[in-house]
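Q: Convert this sequence to structure tokens.
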Amino acid sequence: MPSNSSAPTARGLSPLSIVIPVLNEAARLPALLASLQPLRARGVEVVVADGGSHDGSDTLARPLVDTLVAAPRGRARQMNAGAAAARGAQLLFLHADTTLPPQADTLVAAALHGSARWGRFDVRIDGRSAWLPVVGAFMNRRSRWTGIATGDQAMFLDRSLFEQLGGFPDQPLMEDVELCRRLRQQGLRPACLRTPVHTSGRRWDERGALRTIGLMWALRWRYWRGESAQSLWEAYR
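A:
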């Protein structure tokens, strides 16, 4: 799939590339990409890795991104394909239902020019359930304590480090947790930025907040006990 020309192309290498894995996100994608246009104007590259959408997500994305990649379906595979096509020295992985703060580029640059080589944002979960602020606050606190981040927190890192670790592991679930575990094995803890990203609470609203919390904790426990990501994915679905 061809890439689009853009401001970062004219300027040469972009310092930061935002990689967004997409699968049938036509309802959310235009607003998300519109929110990223000020970052593009400052030289940030936006890459969308489409996993075979049939709702026109790729058509909607094309005029609003720098590179559009047709990737094998699967979040880890899509993010790896997007990273391979990106030109930035720093990579930020953004879910299609998550929005960044307006100054995300300067926050990431400051974190990675300090002592950290990777990091993530705090998260706020938007939705109907009164439990969602509690869930978000607990996720942030747990992440600071464990050094483990989730994809909802918009993980970012140096490209060289990402490539050194081989990218995201090719597994259908817990790819973010596994990458964090490998980073911790290198003795690298994240920069935990307190400025939040906002992510959709749709899965909590659809399934029930308490039920979803219980499910995610159970899946994490089973993963740390050595159960395969494939079996956990089947349970999650």
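Strands lie at 16-22, 45-50, 67-70, 90-93, 98-99, 118-126, 156-158, 191-200.
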